[in-house]
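Team,

Forwarding the record for the chain on the shared tracking sheet. I've put the sequence and predicted structure together so nobody has to dig through attachments.
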Amino acid sequence: MKRILIYSLLFVFKLGFSQNVPEVLKTEFSKEALAQTLEDEKGKVITMNDILHQHKGKVLVLDFWAGWCRDCINAFPKAKELEEKNKNIDFVFLSLERTQESFRKSLEKFQMNDKENYWFAGGWKNNFNNYIDLNWIPRYIVVDQKSGIAKYYAISPDDPEIQSTIDKLTL
């Protein structure tokens, strides 16, 4: 009986705290999502629209992560491989750290200071993350050259659909 209760609790826990593929795979960002503000490591505020505008004409991979996230840390080697394999692709790292201090410390700890990083200073729940159905990290989105969403939902940097999407966009 005790074993059944333990397995039941583990099952419920796993269901309640795991990535679920969104029902609708979006192909563009809403105005509200694009107006979402983030901060860089120096505290400069920028919108998602500004970030996408800076990368317009290029394929862009958005990588959602945090230093407290074990799955994110475990994904770092594969994410690095994806970057190295796609040197002509832009990568932007969007942190879900809880504080600006932890954001800066994680950038240092994981040697990410040379990458383009931003932090959701307003927390996990915001217009951008709500719009993209962010329910777990890591998460990857591939954005096309016109700032449309080419690959909406990937949970691992070695998801073959990320690379095949990049390949299709760069033919």
